[in-house]
Design a protein that fits this description.
Blueprint (H helix, E strand, L loop, with lengths): L10 H10 L4 E5 L3 E2 L39 H4 L2 H9 L2 E4 L6 E6 L2 H10 L4 E4 L4 E6 L5 E5 L2 E4 L5 E2 L9 E2 L2 H4 L30 H16 L5 H16 L7 H13 L4 H15 L5
Parallel strand pairs: 6-10
Antiparallel strand pairs: 1-2, 1-3, 3-9, 4-6, 4-8, 5-6, 7-8
Helix pairs in contact: 6-7, 6-8, 7-9
Length: 287
Amino acid sequence: MTQPTDIRRDHLATALYLAASRVPPLPLRAGKVPFGNCPTCAKNACGGRPNMKTPGPCNCPAPCHGWAAATTDPNVINSAPWARAWREAAGVAYHPGGAGLTVVDLDNAEAIAWARESLPATRTVPTTRGQHWIYRGAMQGANGVRPGVDIKSTMAYARWLGPGTGTMTTLPDAVRALTVKEPTPARPVALTVPSLAGGGQCPHRTPTYLDRGIAMAEQRITEARSAVHATVYHTFLAVLSTHGRCGCLTQTHTARLFTAAQAKGESPRHCTEAWTNALTTLGLTHG
């Protein structure tokens, strides 16, 4: 993106320029924060977008709900509900994730030095105290991933401070890894199963069969490159379908599956929800 110098002081023109470049902008008020919600959406009375849990444009005609208000629709940007915001705007921000981008926000000299040693070079934009490193590719935004470093991408906004310099490169795994927390111990999940019909023998005559199944499930989760939550659920479902009715599946096995899922970014709560949903689907009892 190359921004004409004669529109840098005109926030509306800058927003339209960004929108034409398929980068969704939104106005910022003093303090580098989005405008507050309109009366209809005050105190989130409208329920959010929806409840601010998923990416996508705000449904309100005014620039509400922070990053969710960002849009590339020039008719919305030029609309009457946005007019007051542009008149009062102190700056322009954009939704990096909506443009398929990730901004590594480096807040001080130490963070910049770390990035130069640890990350591949990419497009760089100077900020008041540091730099924005912009990569091609989106991920979940997160603040404080390390001292002086924030990630601005999906469900986040970044200030527009100009096009920057340098060639934009693909989002590296080193940046994605910054938001992956060390897995916490898996929460115990109780599994109550019915007795085998007629008191028959468990079909898993040796632990080898079960261990091989758990190892394959761990591998499937670990190798997931997208739709991780769905992969975790379907993997849990497959494990329980095969091993969940005979009493062989122990808390140790469950912990292995939860640990693999959390290493991919799933929270303990999401693991528990996926496990519970799989139990319910199969008609097993979770207590």
